[in-house]
Specification:
It is built from 12 helices and 4 strands, in the order H-H-H-H-H-E-E-H-H-H-H-H-E-E-H-H. It has 434 residues and is of the alpha+beta class. The relative contact order is 0.12.
């Protein structure tokens, strides 16, 4: 009997463990995003992930990798896994016995008693199961947080690239319109152009110069947002941004994307685990209806030999049977089921929206590059030639120039929209798209 009891105690006192640790998290992040978080013990000295260099330009994939490695916000979130694992360790611990010694006053003997709650024998498995599932849920949630951060880094990179492109186009517009205003002034001095036309040209040049100045400020702000996302302000400000070639392919069939997302999204898996954890917690609450402790009393002192007695101490469930705990656990289980349903519906909505946005922006970009930009270039060339011959007013050149610059700006915006939508679709499908 004693060896059996000792084996039970040793088995119960063994530390509860979980495979969901930082190493598992690093593998999952790499699987979903292509990059991993900073390992424990690395410190803050390593500013860039291994095998990552920005000397040839900072790409959107490198931005995502740097953000996962260096974001203070994400590093703080990773501490949640340590809290959950600590809760699991607590759940697996055996309660300490209570020892009381009563010294005699008068002729009474010394008394002592030892009390050890043995309800842990049937309550611990439920408690450990719930805590172990909580660790898994937190781990899956952190993988989803990594996906969100990678998406945010790619979006911030696309915004910074757009701001740089807008700055370049605005600067070119300012230079072009200033040149047109100077040419209009010379034509007016020669008597070929009215003073009102010269004033209008100078007005347009001033407006373009103000827009170019505003574009510089927008570029600085976009770089600052990228720096915050990456967690490396100096790198984001100094590095050259590399946009890379934009894909114009069809995003793929919606049904396949939705199926992939439902199978791959960590937040859906976390919601499924939350349902399991709620069920395990409900089982734990039901096991707490009856609490039993093992009590051992010892009496001794004086001339008589020590005597003792051993027996159970039971809390009789007469007036309450843990109805509150059981009710809360059952309500939590019901809420977890509804949250799982909501998570799946949100995944479907996000994939539908992201795919539609990506398909529309890519189609618009194809049309813009194939039809609009060539036509705008040809219109400007024709207007300049006609103006230089004196056949048309400068207003025709001004209008053609404005249209071309607007077309270039719209191309940059469509390209940024496409990259944002692609980043969102990758996130929406759990990092499994394309």
């Amino acid at each position: 009997m004693r060896p059996l009891l000792l084996a039970v105690v040793i088995a119960l006192s063994a530390c509860a463990s979980s495979p969901y640790d930082r190493a598992w998290l690093a593998r999952e992040l790499r699987s979903h995003t292509g990059a991993a978080a900073r390992p424990e013990g690395t410190g803050t000295a390593a500013r860039l992930p291994p095998d990552t260099s920005v000397d040839d330009g900072l790409t959107e994939d490198e931005a995502a990798a740097i953000a996962l490695w260096n974001s203070p916000s994400f590093q703080a979130d990773l501490a949640q896994l340590g809290f959950a694992r600590a809760d699991l360790a607590d759940a697996g611990m055996l309660p300490n016995p209570i020892l009381a010694i009563l010294f005699p006053i008068g002729p009474r003997q010394v008394e002592s008693w030892l009390l050890w709650p043995i309800e842990v024998l049937w309550q611990r498995p439920h408690r450990v199961a719930a805590a172990r599932l909580d660790v898994a849920r937190v781990a899956q949630g952190l993988v989803q947080s990594g996906l969100d951060l990678a998406r945010d880094a790619r979006v911030a990179h696309a915004d910074a690239v757009l701001a740089s492109a807008r700055e370049g186009v605005r600067a070119e517009a300012s230079a072009t319109l200033t040149e047109i205003a100077a040419l209009a002034g010379r034509r007016s001095a020669a008597g070929d152009l009215a003073d009102s036309d010269v004033a209008a040209a100078r007005l347009e040049a001033g407006i373009a110069a103000e827009a170019a100045s505003r574009a510089v400020a927008d570029r600085v702000a976009a770089r600052a947002r990228l720096a915050l996302t990456l967690g490396l302000p100096d790198l984001a400000d100094a590095a050259t941004l590399s946009a890379g070639a934009a894909s114009l392919e069809d995003p793929g069939a919606l049904a396949a994307l939705v199926q992939t997302a439902l199978a791959a999204r960590p937040d859906v898996r976390a919601a499924e685990i939350a349902v399991e954890a709620a069920g395990a917690r409900a089982g734990w609450e039901r096991s707490r209806i009856v609490n039993v402790s093992l009590r051992a009393d010892v009496f001794g002192g004086g001339a008589s030999a020590p005597t003792g007695r051993v027996g159970p101490q039971i809390t009789l469930p007469i007036f309450q049977q843990n109805q509150g705990g059981i009710g809360r656990a059952e309500a939590e289980a019901e809420r977890a089921v509804w949250r799982l349903r909501l998570a799946r519906q949100q995944v479907v909505a996000e994939v539908v929206t992201a795919r539609a946005s990506l398909a529309q922006s890519r189609a618009a970009l194809r049309t813009w590059r194939a039809d609009v930009l060539p036509a705008a270039d040809e219109a400007l060339r024709g207007a300049r030639q006609s103006f230089e011959r004196g056949d048309t007013s400068y207003l025709v050149v001004l209008d053609a120039t404005r249209r071309l610059l607007d077309a270039r700006l719209r191309e940059a915006e469509l390209l940024a929209e496409s990259r944002r939508a692609e980043a969102q679709l990758v996130r929406s499908t759990g990092g499994r798209h394309g």
